[in-house]
Amino acid sequence: MKFTQMAKANEVQRDWIIVDATDKIFGRIITEVATILRGKHKPSFTPHVDCGDNVIIINASKAKFSGAKLEDKNYYTHSGYFGSTKTHKMSDMLENNPEKLFKLATRGMLPKTKLGKVMLKKLKVYAGSEHPHSAQIKG
After folding, report:
1. Helix (H, G, I), strand (E, B) or coil at 117
2. Rounded to the nearest 5 degrees, what angle is found at the Cα of 7, between the Cα atoms of 135 and 117?
3. pLDDT digit string, tens, across residues 65-74
């Protein structure tokens, strides 16, 4: 009789994966990253255990967008006070803070639980090609 193997949190092997966003479609990058962060690409995937890898996205400001999203899509923030709703265009966010744009999109594809917050902390996004994680990457 064979049993399904369930991964345990202390047995999970985490790798560091670099994703270069240069001339790639934004949504395709995010879905790939969310899958890696969740650990669904591994044969030992277990839904209730964080078995994903660490992901570094470089050249985030050079990602491509399909359609007219850069001009049309808006992100909203609200502090909770009356009249405090602020609107941010996607094009402005890509120029000023591409790290936040990538994190917001990835957060939407991860579970909305404590486990999802832990998974999101393993995502590092950089607008340029330089990153301070060269010591973690093997080879």
Report:
1. helix
2. 60
3. 999 999 999 9
